[in-house]
Design the sequence.
């Protein structure tokens, strides 16, 4: 084996530690890919997405137990762990992330220990943007640069580096041929041919590692640390100059000094009563600024921006108010609202309440609806409390946000506070409850709703279509409350509706329910009820165990026979009790109950 | 070989196979690239299997040539180039997006290139079948002998020699940093110049700026890494001074100040873009403040003028930070820096925005350096003296201090005479804590351009005697400077 072969052999030899590193790195990218798919399918903040994010966090945590830096070299369709030839992520159409990165010149990416879920989430968002065919405006480098990551950095070649390094094929070239020639001519002019020797010497020095082009492994936070130490910021300025410049610097870092200022500028134009075309441009610009503010990590600044404009309203023309309302509406798109709801679900109390305050001030009905959906997710108690409080507040303006079957998506526990709200808005909110009854919600919730609706059933068609089907529901408690409601609402129809239910099938129902059914039947059915019951009780000859049981249950239920029917029922039971062809168990029960009824009657 | 669908997923060479006009330019380039590379692959592959005189080889060439001529004619170019590096292939500079299977086919082509030690071919329009036959012969021979193709001369086929396997990192490491910075700066000058021409022709400031934005991002990262080579290039006037070079230089000075203020690289690049945009706005009739020469109007008139200009901009700005900054610069034009700006501009009085202050100072400094808008061209040290003399009068004095402390008394690119009698160019300013009069210089001597860090004790006996103006043709300072 030659020396070169031996070196190659050693180069690819993997220590167990390195193998483990590769395994964990693959896991990290698998988790990223999974999250990428989920984020395209679920709204922001959804528990499934949040779980996947937790999965990523865990995967990186385990990797960083071994190494404090995950560096990958990016190839057109795959990534390898830096320093090895092991592929840790392969990508292909339609989500060829690696190609999207290499096409824009990115050849190394470093993810450093300390990275948090916010940065990981943003990284996945960027990956998704890169492969989204609808979004081709921004390039990978620009997106990564704008993201301002603290724990992710990258090395990329641009056109200049590509031209000097002879890497023209590694990225798309965005210069025209004329521009390339012009750049080349100017460049040659700047470097005299007579200096070639020195240049070549410097090139050799570069090859020997003396060049400053090195892989960027320092992280943004280290640079910021340098700033905090004051090595660069303001240099050697005196205290007064520092204070002055620091105050002015806020003009860049705070929305109040940037976008809000722009709010005043735009208001000033509106205040000058511009012609319609210009007025529309201003309104559109207001929308654009709002959209931009909503995309920041302090989206609630949008409200302050709107307030700035509002403070100029005395100088606006009358038509402006409607325009502004319109632009606010169109600005809060569903996607933006979902992102804001995610903020509510996952951020600290101050941010959460600021967002809710903005929703409230701008009367964003759709946002309230999305918040109701949020209640169906697994969110912390303090978030839930705030959201419920907010929804209560919004209910002062109506319950439109519950439309669209939103209540039906919640479990009983989560829906109860809202059902209570609906109750408070009865009878106006009654259609909402009827709609809920028709939805596939858990029986316990329907029971609550039926309780609220008790005494409100009037319409015959509603009774037939909504209430009566519950008499045959699968849940006993639900059937009972429906039974009671029906008997209260339509006593004259009890015999017709309940009669067919008094069959052998009754024995499958709990005794308590049978008792209620029989009681109501007897109460409202009178003689017809007695006749109907007789067939079920007066069983002669060989009677099966279960039939006997049913008869006994019915007879026992008759203990509660209302006063007006007691005589007829007592006679019926006495007759059955005396019939020797009736099984003893039924007879004895009939005698016992008949005795009780007679005693009650005597009293 | 199936002609209807080739290995690279493209159509075969027939008249209908060329990309249609309905597709985007990138899509067209991709489809064309795949077809072309497939054609080359076919010929080279067939040529490597059969002899070059074999009927199969002839047939492959005959199929390919009509397609080639038509492609060259339709593209309007004189030639078609193909380059391979590692697993990438590009045709006419367009990197091809290959599927995995196509990639495997490319690997075969790569092996043929590697065997002949070539990484690219450029086929001229005048190429004939016999030229291709010659290429195939030589390619086969080079593969067998392992001697490469440097000796081969085919008039219509240019060969790019070298291994197609150079790694990106090796290639990048071989690049001289100063040359890279110079290239970035020159590219910015060229791109902005072309953009200005475009805006002038179209009378519309709404032009794509993605590439410029990327360059500004690169510059902001250079500044953030304390890499000040670029600052030395600005006074060298690599192009004849005009509005576009002023625009780029102003952007860089403004970014430098923003960086010194500790703003994030993102915000620094926004400041740079705000300067670039301000000049685009200027080209379509929006006035740009010139605080040093223009005392401003009385408030109501200034307000009305500024408002009119902002209204003019509204057709092409959007809500992002750069737009906000350019609107603020126009709106606050002519407002004083020494007292809050109140009615009629703002209902609540506000300090003049920092971006307006930065831009005023950066513009004035570059106008002095480049000798534009009525100023005579000054050396950097004289320009510094000038703005210092106007500090507190027309410029924010604290910001001027920041500029001076950043650029130094002898800014990068200044030419000086040392007490030893030698002339030198300043290539680095001293550290903030060091003596500002003792920067790092490079001796202006082509044969021995040594570097002296005057802050080092061993050079304690050497001082800067005086700044000097170099006469035209004396020495190309840029060439010496860029050695750093």
Sequence:
């Amino acid at each position: 084996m030659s020396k070169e072969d031996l070196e190659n052999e050693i180069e690819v030899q993997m220590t167990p530690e390195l193998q483990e590193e590769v395994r964990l790195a693959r896991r990290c990218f698998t988790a990223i890919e999974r999250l990428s798919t989920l984020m395209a399918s679920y709204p922001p903040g959804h528990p499934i997405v949040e779980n996947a994010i937790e999965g990523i966090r865990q995967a990186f945590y385990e990797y960083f137990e071994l190494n404090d830096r995950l560096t990958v070299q990016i190839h057109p369709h795959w990534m390898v762990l830096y320093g090895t030839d092991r592929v840790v992520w392969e990508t292909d159409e339609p989500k060829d992330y690696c190609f999207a990165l290499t096409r824009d010149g990115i050849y190394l990416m470093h993810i450093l220990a300390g990275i948090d879920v916010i940065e990981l989430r943003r990284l996945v968002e960027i990956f998704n943007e890169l492969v989204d065919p609808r979004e081709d405006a921004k390039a990978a480098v620009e997106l990564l640069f704008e993201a301002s990551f603290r724990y992710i950095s990258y090395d990329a070649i641009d056109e200049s580096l590509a031209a000097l390094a002879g890497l023209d094929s590694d990225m798309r070239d965005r210069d025209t041929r004329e521009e390339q020639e012009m750049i080349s001519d100017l460049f040659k002019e700047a470097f005299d041919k007579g200096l070639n020797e020195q240049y070549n010497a410097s090139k050799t020095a570069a090859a020997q590692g003396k060049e400053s082009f090195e892989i960027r492994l320092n992280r943004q936070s280290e640079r910021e640390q340098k700033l905090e130490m004051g090595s660069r910021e303001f240099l050697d300025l005196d205290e007064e100059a520092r204070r002055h410049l620091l105050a002015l610097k806020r003009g860049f870092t705070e929305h109040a000094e940037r976008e809000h200022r722009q709010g005043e500028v735009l208001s000033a134009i509106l205040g000058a009563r511009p012609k319609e075309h210009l007025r529309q441009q201003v309104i559109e610009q207001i929308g654009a600024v709002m959209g931009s503010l909503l995309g920041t990590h302090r989206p609630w600044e949008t409200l302050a921006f709107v307030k700035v404009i509002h403070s100029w309203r005395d100088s606006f023309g009358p038509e402006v108010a409607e325009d502004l309302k319109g632009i606010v509406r169109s600005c809060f798109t569903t996607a933006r609202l979902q992102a804001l709801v995610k903020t509510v679900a996952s951020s600290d109390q101050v941010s959460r309440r600021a967002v809710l305050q903005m929703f409230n001030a701008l009367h964003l009905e759709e946002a309230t609806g999305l918040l109701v959906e949020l209640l169906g997710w697994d969110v912390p108690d303090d978030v839930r409390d705030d959201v419920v409080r907010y929804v209560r507040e919004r209910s002062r303006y109506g319950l439109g946000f519950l439309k669209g079957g939103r209540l039906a998506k919640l479990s009983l526990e989560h829906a109860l506070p809202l059902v209570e709200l609906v109750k408070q808005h009865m009878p106006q909110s009654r259609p909402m409850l009827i709609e809920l009854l028709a939805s596939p919600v858990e029986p316990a919730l329907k029971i609550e709703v039926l309780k609220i609706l008790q005494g409100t059933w009037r319409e015959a068609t509603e009774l037939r279509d909504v209430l009566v089907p519950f008499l045959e529901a699968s849940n006993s408690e639900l059937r009972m409350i429906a039974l009671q409601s029906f008997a209260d609402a339509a006593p004259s129809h009890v015999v017709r509706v309940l009669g067919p239910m008094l069959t052998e099938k009754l024995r499958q129902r709990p005794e308590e329910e049978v008792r209620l059914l029989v009681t109501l039947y007897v109460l409202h059915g009178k003689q017809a009820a007695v006749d109907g019951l007789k067939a079920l009780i007066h069983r002669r000859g060989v009677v099966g165990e279960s039939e006997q049981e049913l008869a006994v249950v019915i007879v026992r239920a008759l203990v509660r026979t209302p006063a007006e029917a007691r005589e007829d029922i007592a006679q019926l039971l006495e007759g059955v009790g005396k019939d020797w062809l009736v099984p003893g168990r039924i007879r004895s029960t009939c005698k016992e109950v008949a005795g009780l009824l007679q005693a009650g009657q005597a009293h | 070989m199936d002609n209807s669908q080739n290995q690279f997923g493209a159509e075969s060479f027939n008249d209908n196979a060329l990309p249609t006009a309905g597709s985007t330019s990138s899509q067209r380039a991709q489809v064309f690239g795949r077809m072309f590379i497939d054609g080359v692959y076919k010929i080279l592959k067939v040529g490597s299997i059969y002899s070059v005189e074999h009927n199969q080889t002839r047939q492959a060439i005959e199929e390919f040539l009509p397609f080639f001529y038509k492609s060259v004619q339709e593209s309007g170019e004189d030639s078609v180039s193909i380059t391979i590096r590692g697993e990438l292939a590009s045709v006419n500079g367009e990197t091809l997006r290959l599927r995995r299977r196509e990639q495997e086919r490319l690997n075969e082509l790569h092996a043929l290139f590697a065997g002949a030690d070539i990484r690219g071919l450029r086929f001229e329009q005048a190429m004939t079948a016999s030229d291709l036959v010659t290429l195939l012969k030589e390619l086969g021979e080079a593969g067998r002998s392992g001697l490469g193709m440097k000796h081969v001369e085919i008039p219509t086929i240019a060969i790019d020699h070298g291994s197609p396997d150079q790694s990106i990192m090796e290639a990048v490491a071989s690049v001289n940093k100063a040359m890279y910075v110079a290239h970035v700066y020159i590219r910015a000058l060229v791109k902005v110049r072309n953009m200005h021409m475009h805006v002038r022709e179209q009378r519309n400031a709404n032009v794509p700026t993605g590439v410029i934005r990327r360059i500004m991002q690169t510059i902001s990262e250079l500044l953030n890494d304390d890499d000040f080579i670029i600052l030395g290039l600005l006074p060298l006037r690599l192009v004849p001074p005009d509005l576009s070079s002023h625009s780029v230089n102003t952007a860089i000075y403004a970014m430098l100040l923003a960086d010194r203020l500790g703003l994030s690289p993102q915000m620094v690049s926004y400041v740079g873009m705000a300067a670039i945009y301000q000049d685009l706005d200027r080209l379509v009739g929006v006035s740009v403040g010139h605080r040093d020469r223009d005392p401003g109007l009385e408030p109501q008139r200034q307000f009305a003028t500024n408002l009119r200009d902002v209204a003019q901009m509204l057709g092409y700005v959007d809500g992002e930070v750069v737009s906000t900054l350019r609107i603020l610069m126009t709106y606050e034009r002519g407002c004083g820096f020494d007292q809050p700006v109140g009615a009629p501009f703002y209902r609540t009085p506000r300090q003049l925005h920092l971006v307006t202050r930065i831009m005023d100072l950066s513009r004035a400094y570059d106008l002095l350096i480049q000798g534009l808008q009525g100023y005579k061209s000054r050396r950097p040290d004289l320009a510094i003296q000038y703005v210092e003399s106007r500090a507190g009068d027309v410029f924010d004095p604290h910001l001027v201090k920041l500029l001076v402390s950043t650029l130094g008394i002898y800014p990068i690119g200044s030419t000086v005479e040392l007490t030893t009698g030698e002339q030198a160019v300043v290539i680095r300013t001293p550290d903030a804590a060091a003596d500002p009069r003792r920067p790092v210089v490079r001796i202006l001597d082509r044969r021995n351009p040594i570097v002296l860090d005057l802050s080092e004790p061993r050079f304690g006996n050497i001082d800067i005697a005086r700044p000097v103006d170099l006469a035209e043709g004396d020495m190309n300072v840029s060439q010496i400077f860029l050695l750093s």
In short: Residues 1-12 of chain B have pLDDT under 50 and may be disordered. Residues 381 and 409 of chain B are 6 Å apart (CA to CA). Chain B touches chain A through 106 residues (CB under 8 Å).
